[in-house]
Amino acid sequence: MSELNREERNKMIVENLPLVGYLVSEICARSPHLSREDLAGAGALALVSAAQSFDPSYGVKFGTFARRRILGAFADDMRASDWASRDTRRRIKETLAVSELLTGALQRNPTVGEIAEVLGVGRDAVAATLADASRTVSTLDENAPESLTAVMATPEESLLVSEQAQVLRAAVQALPDKMRYIIEQTYFEDRPVKDLAEEFGSTHSAVSQQRAEAIRLLRDGMAAVYSDTDGAAPAPESRVAPARRTAYLNSLAARTRGGSTLSVPVRLAAMAPVSA
């Protein structure tokens, strides 16, 4: 298996963010009743998962590989929404996540009682949710075994994918206001740069340059969190002033502090350059 380091995989994630936005817009154009926010979330998770599992020796481009994963995530989300409420889907995700965590910790399948204890709910509620989860799997088409096998991961891998997706979302939210708005509008709301330029009273070139700088800052944030180097800060890709880059990394650390990515602020603090 051809190995890619973390920086290379993070770069693939950031560079293919537009693919998620494009596919969300394509699906929503055909089915306006679907939730753009739900699809974008499912697509982002699928993109991170694809980057983690991609092997160049597959003989396909990463974009092609990721597109299949993202569309598969959309299909699963749409099939689930045909019968399950958002609350039901949330309960399924929480229950399965706890089940995976306990499996990794106990080195065996957890009992319904153990899952219920962690969730703080009754055994009957967990049993009903697991039945709903089984129903979700049964609604998939004949290609389900192949698609499920393709996305299955160990609990540790699942946690890493979940963490990276959270960091990516936090990295976008931590961008300076205008940069964040440009990224969200062009990549997730499918607005052309021309529209934003008119809204800002600016030029197409100026907005494009700010979007490119936002992408470089995102790479800096992801690289700072997941650098393979020990102790040494990765070389910055962004061209903003050191003080502004430091402020961005500190903002990213603040947004991840207290969540499930507890190690992120420590790594960011160690890697952020000292402003003059």
Automatic annotation (TrEMBL):
Domain RNA polymerase sigma-70 region: 13-83, 172-219
InterPro entries: RNA_pol_sigma-70_dom, RNA_pol_sigma70_r2, RNA_pol_sigma70_r4, RNA_pol_sigma_r2, RNA_pol_sigma_r3/r4-like
Domain of life the protein comes from: Bacteria
Biological processes, Gene Ontology terms: DNA-templated transcription initiation
Pfam families noted in UniProt: Sigma70_r2, Sigma70_r4
GO molecular function per UniProt: DNA binding; sigma factor activity
UniProt keyword terms in alphabetical order: DNA-binding, Sigma factor, Transcription, Transcription regulation
Keyword DNA-binding: yes
Protein name: RNA polymerase sigma factor for flagellar operon
